[in-house]
């Protein structure tokens, strides 16, 4: 039986929210260690990450690690478009102090410190999500920001999602615009 995206999204968010602060911290540390050991991460010069939100895999230490490893560290930000919608762009940062609450309360590069980065120049994009499956399909919050952005990256860019095991489902419905991940990194494994 195939469940709808909305049903899976609701179930996954409930499961993720049920994790305690300590569980999120421990599992995030395990995911960070697994990510740091990946060849795809080691060989990447330009790495885009996200600022965690609502019990997502914590990324503060990962952002610090990228900066300390000498990688150009990139974070997304949301802006209003001329058509009245919203779109996601990317900016390089040098420290966590360059972030402030932005759209939806998610931390993003301060407008005064933004250094635009083309999606085509990225070596690796570390992606959040609500749910994933064994085929590396991703279910986001439903706005399509990451799917639109990832569609603009070059072929060799590694798309790596971070997730807790509770976010892995047997199957996720895939739409025509949904971008599949190259890998999903959890506290227990790397799904490739």
Automatic annotation (TrEMBL):
Alphabetic keyword roster: ATP-binding, Ligase, Magnesium, Metal-binding, Nucleotide-binding
One GO term (biological process): folic acid-containing compound biosynthetic process
Residues that, per the record, bind substrate: 56
UniProt xrefs under Pfam families: 5-FTHF_cyc-lig (PF01812)
UniProt superkingdom: Bacteria
Residues engaged in binding ATP: 5-9, 138-146
A GO molecular function held by the record: 5-formyltetrahydrofolate cyclo-ligase activity
Family annotation (Gene3D superfamilies): NagB/RpiA/CoA transferase-like
Swiss-Prot/TrEMBL catalytic activity: (6S)-5-formyl-5,6,7,8-tetrahydrofolate + ATP = (6R)-5,10-methenyltetrahydrofolate + ADP + phosphate
Co-factor(s): Mg(2+)
Enzyme nomenclature, EC number: 6.3.3.2
Assigned protein family: Belongs to the 5-formyltetrahydrofolate cyclo-ligase family.
Listed NCBIfam families: MTHFS_bact (TIGR02727)
Protein name as annotated: 5-formyltetrahydrofolate cyclo-ligase
Naturally occurring in which organism (per UniProt): Anaerobacterium chartisolvens
